[in-house]
Amino acid sequence: RTIGDRIGEAKASGNLGNTLKILGQFEEAVVCCQRHLDISQEQGDKVGEARALYNIGNVYHAKGKHLSWSMAQDPGYLPQEVQETLQKASEYYERNLSLVKELGDRAAQGRAYGNLGNTQYLLGNFSEAIAFHKERLAIAKEFGDKAAERRAYSNLGNAHIFLGRFDISAEYYKKTLQLSRQLKDQAVEAQACYSLGNTYTLLQDYERAIEYHLKHLVIAQELGDR
């Protein structure tokens, strides 16, 4: 501010906002991220503007998740405050998405789609969540980003469960499992086995359910995860 470096001030405000978000100080975080947004718009800095929109979305997303966890709610059955917070997150992600499309930034589009999928899932809009996660999946494949691809499969599996399409969920969880093994991520592999166990229970294929729950158990024991 002293040297009149507006872009520098904007970036510093954004960093403060992100740090306050991690500290759970959501209201202050929004103020700082909004400052980042205002200065970026004033300076005609589209990249900064896109980043600020994404960061504000993240603050509302984190706040919404924090509120829904503290109330232990299922997706779609949310108190008014949580719904409004997640709705705001979604709106900022949408604004971010249209701007990064304009900028032709595919990687940023991928991140926006993933987060839109997650907010819609929490809001109980499972079909919308699926559409967004499919977009996320396509971009992850485009970039050869195996970790993002794995997350997309997992999220697609979760959303299909709530639509009662257990067989489709199982296919997505199997892809999650495959990729977690490729990535040598045992904790995620265990989680995929757990999800498959539950899905096969819902499909009333109990032999398979037991098989996957045993795999989950073995990895949990290996990792010493009580």
Automatic annotation (TrEMBL):
GO terms for molecular function: G-protein alpha-subunit binding; GDP-dissociation inhibitor activity. It is found in: Cell membrane; Cytoplasm. SMART domains: TPR (SM00028). GO terms for cellular component: cell cortex; plasma membrane. TPR repeats lie at residues 150-183. GO terms for biological process: establishment of mitotic spindle orientation. PROSITE patterns: TPR (PS50005). SUPFAM superfamilies: TPR-like. Keywords: Cell membrane, Cytoplasm, Membrane, Phosphoprotein, Repeat, TPR repeat. Its main location: membrane. It comes from the Eukaryota. Pfam families: TPR_12. Belongs to the GPSM family. This is GPSM1 protein. It comes from Corythaixoides concolor (Grey go-away-bird).
